[in-house]
Specification:
By secondary structure, this protein is of the alpha+beta class. The chain has one domain (2-131). Helices cover 49% and strands 20% of the residues. The chain contains 3 helices and 3 strands. The chain has helices at 8-52, 57-63, 70-84, and strands at residues 93-97, 100-110, 121-131. It has a 3-stranded antiparallel beta sheet with strand order 1-2-3. α1 (8-52) crosses α3.
Length: 137
């Protein structure tokens, strides 16, 4: 009777260790991906804010209305992304509509533990937007 049960514990141990390693990978790499997403979101939002500061001064002086300078806004947002260095300014998309600047940034976050099971990167896409507003006039 004892001869039939030899080795059953080792199969169970291998299964448990495999599941624990996968969970550890999800925790470690999941934290890294969340950190990368948060950093990229912050950079996209700050780039959009930098772009939203580019308003046409003549419009404010003539009519007291804030009018965004689209070309300058896109340039300022791209310049900010290039300065921070984490977000790939070449792959980021900067658009303007009315007085709103929208920055869409993408990156691939590398994994450590999950690369053992074939997941080497996680693709992240974030969107940040800001609207040109006037202060107290």
């Amino acid at each position: 009777m004892r001869a039939r049960q030899v080795g059953s514990t080792s199969v169970f141990a291998v299964c448990v260790v495999s599941v624990l390693m996968l969970l550890a990978g999800l925790c470690i790499d999941g934290g890294r991906v969340l950190n990368a997403r948060t950093t990229l979101t912050d950079e996209a939002e700050q780039a959009a804010r930098a772009g939203a500061q580019e308003v046409q001064i003549g419009g404010i002086r003539r009519t007291n209305e804030v009018v965004l300078d689209p070309a300058a806004a896109r340039a300022a947002a791209r310049e900010y992304l290039g300065a921070v260095g984490d977000a790939d300014a070449a792959s980021a998309t900067v658009t303007t509509a009315g007085n709103t600047v929208t920055v869409t940034a993408e990156t691939d976050a590398p994994t450590f533990m999950l690369s053992l099971v074939g997941v080497s990167t996680v693709h992240i896409t974030v969107v940040g937007s800001a609207q040109a507003e006037s202060g107290i006039i």
